């Protein structure tokens, strides 16, 4: 089968950096889907992206569709003549050319023909146009007097099959084999002789690395090398690295400096100014202290680098000066004095102001602290002040510093270290993989804040639905569960939900506690799925309804250990058998052992007596499972030698009570019958 190498390149004005990877991947996926819908096979598909281009290359693209056999079933033989003639006419043939074929107990007319496959070259223009037009764009642009819409104006189009241009006109552009280099250096435009030369040619002719990931690693190496020259370590934020990579085609990293006086400002504010405004990487010394220097990445190689360095140093100075001004200005007003102004900031319609939320967090923090035996006064104070930094100039400019700046301002106000740390940490974890609060008071206020938001928003009917989660409650819930589990806080989630709901006004439905708990359990299941814990293990624990996420987690850990043991399979199947036998059993676990006749049932009864006493009040679930594994031989012997549903009613009742006791012992950890394959 003949194949071609195909190249598509769409040249544009500078694309939005935070969307670049998404745009390129969607274009690739759309194009592959279109080609597959045309029954075309292909080899490796690669995607390329720079600020001014989206490109896709396909190896071994099938040169022509396979011929197709078309077959249509018509009316039965003997049907009215008009129906038969109409069928033949719709097929473009005479009735006499139709084939007759027996199907079941009737004979039918059939039309059969062969359709020659089209050449790929003829199919590509429509496929490419659909692939581009199906890219979802929230804010499309229109340029000039043209009717076309795209995320940015388009300027050139390359479509090559091997060394041949695929004729097409898309978004007003005629396809060709001419691409463009950098705006200001090197060859401004040049020809691509063959589709398979694209990446190497762009590097040779224009020094442009079109592969996003390769260019990203080049930038990483350059940034680290510049830091080494400065006897420092570069702190590379991956999201910033992605954004910088999407801003440059020809990266050249360099360093610059700023006035040391700015180091009196909290380093988070300086770093935020450098990252958000200038896309700079910051550097630290061997002790982890911020240095008065930065690393930037230019999109050009200058013959006089000092000009670029000086320009960047001039630009960053007013940015840092703004941060310095905000810092000094904010310190002049105590957090406590900002509380009254929180009344003017709406948290959410039906849930009151941020001042209302602060009061709820204060009360909930105090309650949680008392449950955990932590200083309730400290936690309540931190909860009350936690949102006051939202009114500061610094947070108004850098929203990502919420909480962080509150911690600094609290220390400046003379609040205790514990209060300041709790304010600083209470948004954590902010995202998947983020660190938990490191202090007890921070953990408490983080729980209170997240729980208040979840119960309030779900309580007014605005919780997540399907794929929509406008208030990021799933992320909040996952962070809350991580705190319970990873910080090992044994708290009753159902109780906390009820307490939090009751702190809200009557606009919040107080009966939504079961719904919120179920939502939390769904997020807990996702947490375990991400941590490679099987769904059956989760369901086995959920079946016994633990109300503490930490308790839930300890049971999951015990089951994970249990399932690795050779005896587990037999015990799982025995539990499943017991569950089936007891499906309609309504008796209790009081066992009349005097009725037992067989040695196997007597042995099982005696073994369960010993284990029951051993496990009384036990919360070490792994130890419990080890003890229960010891019952394997007597359980196996019982089912091998004893008929549970004996004819004599009292004996049957005693035996059912015995296996009910066995089941209850296992249910003290989980319903392991769910683990049955």
Write the layout of secondary structure elements.
Elements: E1 3-12, H1 20-37, E2 45-50, E3 53-62, E4 68-76, H2 81-91, E5 99-103, E6 106-115, H3 120-133, E7 141-142, E8 149-150, E9 154-161, E10 164-165, E11 169-170, E12 173-174, E13 178-180, E14 189-191, H4 198-206, H5 212-229, E15 233-235, H6 238-245, E16 252-257, H7 267-278, E17 281-284, E18 290-298, H8 305-331, H9 335-338, E19 346-348, E20 352-353, H10 354-372, H11 376-385, H12 393-397, H13 404-413, H14 417-425, H15 440-459, H16 473-486, H17 493-503, H18 513-530, H19 535-542, H20 549-563, H21 568-581, H22 599-615, H23 621-629, H24 632-641, H25 649-667
What is the gist of this entry?
The protein has 677 residues and is α+β, with helices and mostly antiparallel strands. The protein is built from 25 helices and 20 strands.
